[in-house]
Amino acid sequence: MTVEQALFQELPLISRNPVTLATLDPSVNGDWARNANFDHYAPNAYDIGGRTIGRNEVLIDGSPLANSSKLGYDPPVDAVADYMVKQNAIDAEFGHSAGGIVSMSMKSGTNQIHGSAYYFGGKPDSKAVSNRITRQHSKATSWNGGGAVGLPIVKNKLFLFSSYEKQTDSSHLTSDYTLPTALERQGDRSQSVCTDAKQRVIHDPLT
To answer: How confident is the model at residue 164 (pLDDT cuts 50, 70, 90)?
Structure first.
């Protein structure tokens, strides 16, 4: 399966991780939670052609990126020119893995200056109401922004292409913890209670 640049520029990628484009292939299954744009485990969280989780190979311009099941680099979407997924019977040139192959080609500079800038963000006021009583919106905020530019240094001979991306995610989680009482900290559990407020029964493990 080959995904051309025009296609994934039009697709809504909430994760902004080009590796997740592998899921466009109907033979790909896996852990859909691994989709953050800097998730270096994402490519190996997928089954490409059957039982290949942790065994896939990821290439950028022909260079292998995978170190075990983790990548060394996830390029921004705006820096990728095209994208290919290969599974099952692959060519002999791909011999570093027992799984599928995800191959990306990076953009390069040209004789003309080309660039892009983007920002994807979510403000709390635009999110769903998380508390129906107080009508409070979710406080979790996240945004992702960056840009890319390609230009000539020496016309027809030397070119430059560079990209930058940043993500900020502030998520609020609520947790309940049970802390030891003053008696329990001294080793006295005679007054300890269970979660239903009933006194905890202490049993002799030798009887």
So the answer is: very high
CB 72, CB 52: distance < 8 Å: no
Name the CA dihedral angle for 76, 23, 65, 17, rounded to a multiple of 10 degrees: 20
Instruction: Tell me which residue has tokens 């990126």.
Output: 65
Angle (CA) 50 54 59, round 5°: 95
Q: What is the pLDDT of residues 91-101, one digit of tens each?
A: 777 766 777 88
Report d(CA 21, CA 23) in Å as an integer: 5
Task: Evaluate whether 74 touches 165 at the Cβ level (below 8 Å).
Answer: no
H or E element that contains 6: helix 5-10
Structure tokens at 203: 């049993």
By 3-state DSSP, what share of the chain in percent is helix, strand and coil, each rounded to 5?
15, 35, 50
Beta-carbon neighbour count of residue 145 at 10 Å?
15
pLDDT band at 32; cut points 50, 70, 90: low
Q: Which two tokens stand for residue 41?
A: 């485990």
Give the end-to-end CA distance of the chain in Å, rounded to a whole number.
66
Sign (positive/negative) of CA torsion 85, 91, 97, 103? negative
Residue type, 179: L
What domains, with CATH codes, occur in the chain? 2-106 (2.170.130.10), 114-170 (no CATH)
